[in-house]
């Protein structure tokens, strides 16, 4: 690949696996440093629900043995790392005997559908708005209207989510308040099912898009300002090329690589979901499942979700790092790795 040699490629792959190993190790340690006992929390909830548990201590010990929490910490760590290599996250503590994968797999799909699409729409809008704000040929009326799109950036997305929820769900009642689809709709590939998914995704997606598009636009505007005065821009103008072609094929094309890098990193966080937005709208994504796992002290689900997040971010950074010489020919890793 242009701008990339084998030594650098191998080094980056090795660094990726090292990052995943360190992340997995922290993922094992950090939940166990938190106060409280997950098995104690489970038996306590069971006792409260049934006004007491007969032979509660025996049940407590049986749960600890079943999940391997009665063994030394180094044995737990070794078993955890071996299971992680096999993508076996075990069974949920709070939803036993459900496997962690049964909880995580559908949640990943919901988060990627909602957050992924929202991020891509935000990226496209932000790049377009930023480019038009910096371009001298943009009509004054358009330049006066476009900054309005950045107003949402002053609010955290969860506050805007609650505001949208109050206006469109509680007051106007034109959009649903929570969930991913209507309860009376069968989850199958049909127009009605797709339609209700889209309606439920409007408010969560708007809360993310409206609060994020301003940042993308401002960054793109700054990058465009740096490219407008370059020699290749003056040459393109001297050739008499159409203004639209100069804007998109010369200015935007050369200003956008840093934005693509940022997009890749942001997409790495997509699988985690927008936790607070998913909580506000009770959207069954991975962020909402992570919140429920934390509330219930469910070690196995917490470990599974956070490890997926760490691997996805590391993988996106790796991919962007390897393809960046293709995005920007000025960047090369050959000299660095061969020297």
Tell me the distance between the termini: 18 Å
The top level CATH class name of the largest domain: Mainly Alpha
Number of helices: 15
Using the coordinates shown, work out and report the CATH topology of the largest domain.
Answer: MetI-like fold
Molecular shape: flat
**Major sheet:** none
Helix content: over 70%
**Which class of secondary structure composition applies to the elements?**
mainly alpha
Count of separate structural domains: 2
**Uncertain segments:** none
Taken as a percent bin, the fraction of beta residues is under 5%
Examine the secondary-structure arrangement and name the CATH architecture of the largest domain: Orthogonal Bundle
Strand runs, count? 0
Give an overview of the whole structure.
The chain is an all-alpha fold and 339 residues long. The protein has two domains: 6-85, no CATH class; 103-295, Orthogonal Bundle (MetI-like fold), CATH 1.10.3720.10. 71% of the residues lie in helices and 0% in strands. The chain has 15 helices and no strands. The protein has helices at residues 6-33, 38-50, 56-66, 73-85, 100-134, 140-145, 157-171, 191-228, 231-238, 243-255, 257-268, 275-280, 286-295, 299-327, 334-338. Helix 5 runs parallel beside helix 14 (299-327) and helix 13 packs antiparallel against helix 14. The longest helix has 38 residues, at 191-228. It starts with 5 loop residues before the first helix and ends with a helix.
Labels describing this entry:
MetI-like fold; 2 domains; flat; 339 residues; mainly alpha
């Amino acid at each position: 690949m242009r701008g990339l040699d084998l030594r650098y490629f191998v080094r980056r792959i090795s660094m990726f696996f090292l990052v995943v190993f360190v992340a997995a190790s922290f993922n094992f340690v950090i939940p166990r440093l938190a106060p409280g006992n997950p098995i104690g929390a489970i038996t306590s909830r069971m006792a409260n629900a049934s006004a007491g548990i007969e032979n509660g201590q025996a049940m407590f010990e049986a749960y600890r043995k079943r999940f391997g929490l009665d063994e030394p910490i180094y044995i737990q760590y070794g078993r955890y790392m071996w299971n992680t290599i096999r993508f076996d996250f075990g069974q949920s503590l709070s939803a036993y005997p459900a496997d962690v994968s049964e909880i995580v797999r559908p949640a990943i799909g919901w988060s990627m559908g909602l957050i992924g699409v929202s991020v891509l729409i935000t990226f496209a809008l932000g790049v377009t708005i930023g480019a038009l704000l910096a371009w001298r040929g943009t009509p004054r009326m358009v330049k006066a209207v476009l900054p309005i799109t950045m107003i949402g950036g002053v609010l955290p997305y969860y506050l805007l989510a609650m505001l949208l929820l109050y206006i469109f769900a509680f007051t106007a009642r034109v959009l649903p308040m929570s969930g991913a689809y209507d309860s009376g709709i069968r989850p199958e590939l049909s127009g009605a099912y797709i339609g209700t998914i889209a309606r439920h995704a409007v408010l969560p997606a708007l809360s993310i898009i409206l609060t994020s598009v301003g940042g993308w636009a401002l960054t793109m505007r700054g990058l465009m300002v740096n490219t407008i005065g370059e020699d290749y821009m003056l040459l393109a103008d001297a050739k008499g090329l159409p203004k639209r072609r100069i804007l998109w094929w010369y200015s935007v094309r050369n200003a956008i690589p840093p934005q693509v890098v940022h997009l890749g990193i942001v997409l790495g966080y997509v699988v985690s979901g927008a936790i607070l937005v998913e909580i506000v709208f009770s959207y069954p994504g991975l962020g909402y499942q992570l919140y429920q796992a934390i509330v219930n002290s469910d070690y196995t689900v917490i470990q599974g979700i956070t490890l997926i997040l760490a691997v996805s971010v590391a993988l996106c950074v790796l991919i962007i790092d390897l393809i960046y010489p293709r995005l920007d020919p000025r960047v090369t890793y050959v000299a660095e790795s061969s020297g």
